[in-house]
Amino acid sequence: LKEKHKILHRLLQNSTSPVEL
Amino acid sequence: PEAADLRALARHLYEAYLKYFPLTKAKARAILSGKSGDNVPFVIHDIKSLMEGEQLINNGQTSFQEHNIGSDPPDGVELRFFYSCQSRSAEAVREVTEFAKSIPGFVNLDLNDQVTLLKYGVIEVLILMMSPLMNKDGTLISYGQIFMTREFLKSLRKPFCQMLEPKFDFSVKFNTLELDDSDMALFLAVIILSGDRPGLLNVKPIEQLQETVLHSLELHLKINHPDSLQLFAKVLQKMTDLRQMVTDHVQLIQLLKKTEVDMFLHPLLQEIMKDLY
Predict the structure, then answer these.
(1) Interface contacts (A, B; CB < 8 Å)
(2) Coil, helix or strand at residue B241
(3) Residues B185, B111 contacting (CB under 8 angstroms)
(4) B146: which strand partners?
(5) What is the mean pLDDT of chain B?
(6) Complex confidence, ipTM
(7) Residue, of B82 and B43, whose pLDDT is higher
């Protein structure tokens, strides 16, 4: 599941700035 | 002591809500009722005003162009506006994720389950959070800088004109419950902590967390709205409507993918919507 949701996973693991989105 | 803990939880979630969501209901209602001083939104009611407002839209949020996906923005006012909505939605997913992480116990859940809860809950939360921005005549967008009329949205070509109309219908009814930001914070947490999402590995701890937030919401509504009968039950009933709206919304997006050849769907939104229902 984590593999299929890499961005969501990244958001959960650390704060991502809007630019990185 | 138990009631004190539930009150503390309500306060904590309200503070997190204020921290992560830039446009609160209090601010939005002030703008909509013209009580926000100089903060008068630009009104988009036709193509001409949309063109003028596009500058504002793209200043207020990451524009499609900034994503630089290797091609020029497609023609068509509907698609351009749709891309702006996608950028704002992706940013809102980030805000909801930060809020979810602030729910006590959430980050201790299995990481796969955290992903699942967000995947299934985030569009429900986003639709719910549109309600404070809407009235029967239109909606605030772009962090409250713009008011777009419902009639203009209805005049867009199909299926774009069908995307927001169900949200207006829901919002007008939901707004009659008169929840404030502190109520909303607890309700959002209840939605996120739904133990019946498909594919969850460890349901028990999620249900336990939700149970606590539900108690906190029930108590908070009694204190905050002493004269509103059965408000807790009425609020919970809205969860069924939200699920149906997400199903319909995702179907519309799937339709768009088929009919709009050049359409680009934001990678984060793609992740969320893929195999959702």
Answers:
(1) 48
(2) helix
(3) no
(4) B42, B141
(5) 91
(6) 0.85
(7) B43
